[in-house]
Amino acid sequence: MTPQSGSRSLTVGAVVRALQPEFPDISVSKVRFLEAEGLVAPTRTASGYRQFTEADVERLRYVLRAQRDRFWPLRVIRERLAAIDRGLDPGGEEGPPRPPDQEADPGVPAAETLLAGVRLRLTAAEISEASGLDPAEVAALRSHGLLRPDADGLHGEADLRVARAAAGLSAYGIEARHLRPFRTAADREVGLVEQAVGARRGTTAERDRAEVAHLCLTLHAALVRGGLAEPSG
User: Fold this and answer.
1) DSSP class of residue 37?
2) 3-class DSSP state for residue 10?
3) HSE of 8 in the Cβ direction (CA atoms, 13 Å)?
4) Cα within 13 Å of Cα(170), Cβ side
């Protein structure tokens, strides 16, 4: 439900017409009321006209269905939309928003995988609940640099994967302080990727960055697998 760049612009009248088959009572004033309540945020032209996207229409559809089918007040709808904006599963009528399930990473993610993904943003409490770590363990991962919140104090999908992996390792007695070398190694690999791509920006540069990262991960996985295959002792 996040507006996509490049999607066609719609007037408020076009939005009403798109929603009327399902919501016959929808009106321009209703759309403007929902905008005033902060539930949708169309852009404005230089002359002040509202410009909606298809994603805005789907967002309004979600709001109207929540009012009609679930009788949710605007406060609850606003909270659910905020959760969706942070990449969470909004949950059903009974359950609260939660982080989405994650498939296990393949041995080495493809370059396309490194380029894709919704921007997930989670609080420390949500990281704790989704990973099974207690708040003190999450704090330890943060203090050792394994989890890196953004400027708003929120964590992305990579941090959720880190926390879930750390939770699994904790069963073997491996604590956050033991994992610091992973951060150091990762930072070095990131530096190597940036060195290879340089200061270039744009779609081509992002694809090159993902491809170099893929090759670095391939090398890393091969070295680990090789080391484990060597006879011990």
Assistant:
1) T
2) strand
3) 4
4) 17
Q: Does residue 174 register a pLDDT over 80?
A: yes
Report the mean per-residue pLDDT for the chain: 86
Residues in CB range of 175: below 8 A, 6 or more apart: 140
pLDDT in tens, 32-45: 999 999 999 999 98
Intervals of CATH 1.10.1660.10 along the chain:
12-85
Q: Give the pLDDT score at 116.
A: 53
User: Does residue 197 register a pLDDT over 70?
Assistant: yes
The pTM is what? 0.62
Instruction: Tell the CATH topology of 111-229.
Output: Multidrug-efflux Transporter Regulator; Chain: A; Domain 2 (1.10.1660)
Fold entry, domain 12-85: Multidrug-efflux Transporter Regulator; Chain: A; Domain 2 (1.10.1660)
User: What is the dihedral sign for C-alpha 102, 82, 18, 53?
Assistant: negative
